[in-house]
Specification:
Largest sheet: 4 strands, antiparallel
Radius of gyration: 14 Å
Number of helices: 5
Structural class: alpha+beta
Strand content: 15-25%
Shape: globular
Length: about 140
């Protein structure tokens, strides 16, 4: 579902317009700077909130922008969509901390050259930080 939302909304004018606004001050072809700018926007301006009690929800990227809030799947979908809207490849990483094949969290990794940069926009962690101690990990290309 998340990958489908990225494909559907990466051409949305509100999503692409916001991404372009964020990268406008950067030097041309500062790809790493673009990834960082979009990540920092989602991390710092979209409040992390839980889903409705007892209900799993997944918002569209424009809805997450409008509400300025979402959980890990909302923030990750928005981040991946904004990156795709300006030409960056990314993937979703689901992790779990209890047992194999039990996932509680998702974040994004963005391609930069031959590297994948972890981008967990749900907490006040720096660019490139990833959750540790996961016992389950699943990667899904966007």
């Amino acid at each position: 579902l998340m990958r489908g939302l990225v494909d559907r909304y990466k051409t949305d004018p509100s999503v692409r317009g916001l991404a372009l606004e964020l990268v406008r001050p950067l030097a041309p072809k500062d790809w790493r700077g673009e990834i960082r700018a979009v990540f920092e926007y989602v991390r710092d301006n979209i409040r992390y909130v839980h889903d409705i009690a007892g209900v799993e929800t997944l918002r569209t990227p424009p809805a997450t922008i409008e509400l300025e809030a979402g959980d890990c799947d909302d923030k990750s979908t928005l981040l991946a969509t904004m990156l795709a809207s300006i030409g960056h490849r990314s993937r979703f990483v689901a992790v779990g901390y209890r047992q194999p094949n039990d996932y509680q969290h998702v974040y994004v990794e963005a391609a930069h050259g031959n590297d994948w940069i972890p981008l967990d926009a749900t907490m006040a962690r720096p660019f490139g930080w990833r959750p540790r101690d996961a016992v389950a990990r699943m990667v899904q290309m966007v």
